[in-house]
Amino acid sequence: MHIRSFVLLFLLTGPVFLPGSGVVMAQQTRQIEILHAESIEFNKAIDPNTQRLLGNVVFKHQEVTMNCDSAWFYASTNSLDAFGHVHIRQSDTLNLYGDLLRYEGNTRMARMRNNVRLIDNQTVLTTNSLDFDLKNSVGFYTGKGKITNKDNVLESERGYYFTRTKNFHFSRNVLITNPDYTIRSDTMRYNTVSRIAYFHGPTKIASDSNTIYCENGWYDTQFDKAQFNKNAFLSSGKQWITGDSMYYDRRIGFGKALANVTVYDSVQKVLLKGQYGEYTERPQNALLTDSALFIQISGQDSMFVHADTLRSVEDTVAQTKMLFAYYKVKIYKSDMQAKCDSLTYSTSDSTFRMYGAPVLWSDENQLTASFVEIRTRENRPYRIDLYQTAFIASREDSSKFNQIRGKNMIGHIDENGKLYRIDVTGNGQSVYFTKDGPTIVGVNSAESTDMVIYLKDRKVQRITLLTKPSGTLYPPDQAPQEDLVLKGFSWLEQFRPRTKDDIFFW
What we know:
Radius of gyration: 41 Å
Low-confidence stretches: 1-29
CATH class of the domain at 138-297: Mainly Beta
Number of strands: 32
CATH superfamily of the domain at 138-297: Lipopolysaccharide (LPS) transport protein A like domain
Mean pLDDT: 88
Structural class: mainly beta
Shape: rod-shaped
Number of helices: 1
Strand order of the largest sheet: 22-23-26-27-25-24
Distance between the termini: 105 Å
């Protein structure tokens, strides 16, 4: 019998004492066992503790079996080098393949190289270099690895795999590719059972419908739900939303954000802000509460609108958007301020509509009515319509007020945002103090069905009575008291916001 076959026969039929080792392999649970080889070679004169195994080689070490084409076994160090079609099996689910293996039995460390594949149930890891700690069931790779798990493909330059918990820890150029989106991150943790990815560093999620950025959070790749923290940002078409933290459900296109929430529409050039927000993608609707703020951007003089609640609604049929602001609405613009109970804004006609005791201030003038429309062009007001019991007033001194009352009024605003003309239609009445320089010389009490008021330098310059005019000019000290105050007059200066911060105080 050939010496190699003779040695093999003893290995397969009974306890074998390795030359020079003094250890019985089959009886030592911590010693690597040789289960099969077509031939075994060793040279006692050179190294009695080293064997060369050839052909269908099988090792066993505790619960792990190892197959290869050939190997070197080092009894003194309880280690081996395996070559060609290397296969490690641990339990019923974990399989590790490669071309080259260095295995250290005392530490149970397997160092697999070249064409490495780790298969654990439905998870497949491919790389060229993997160190696997069989004792603790942890694998580590450097030099780029790829993990396939159902619909997800994960790639990174470095990674750990904890087979007991089914957790991957990735770092350096992490990429998840899914049929519906991609995720790029600096550092990520992924569980192959829950299929949840946890981000720890700058992360970008991109799809056909939107792009998401955050620096901390998680994404459930199975149910398409996510939580984004730290500088969270979602861009969808021509809109984007930010917040300190965001929740997102991709399947229904719904998101909500907490703390420092901002929604921006690049087409309409408007911002929505608040401390709590909700957002839908189809249609593109948004809701803001808690210090809610609407900003219509216009150069250096934007319009600021505050309300308890702001709601932006998209009409996909008419291809327009509506803004609803309700409860305790205040508006600030450098040349115009306002307050009311509720407000709407439509992109179809670029018009603000004010309800619930609306009041407007333009320079020195106070305008009130039952219902008010502010028409804008290129995000600038150019006309104000006051309906039902329209009233304009301005202070002459501490106790005297110029007043104009009518059924309806139209206020015209110039390119500089100044109110320069007011048209009164129906039941026009006026109380106007005439002056000679700084001195009041008379009081003009007039009525006319229709009127035109001209303003200059923020003051009423003249009044033109158009239809059925009548009036009386009184000396300043002889005007009856009842003629000095028109019905419905109320001076509301205490509610006027003087800065954009004042709109948050009612």
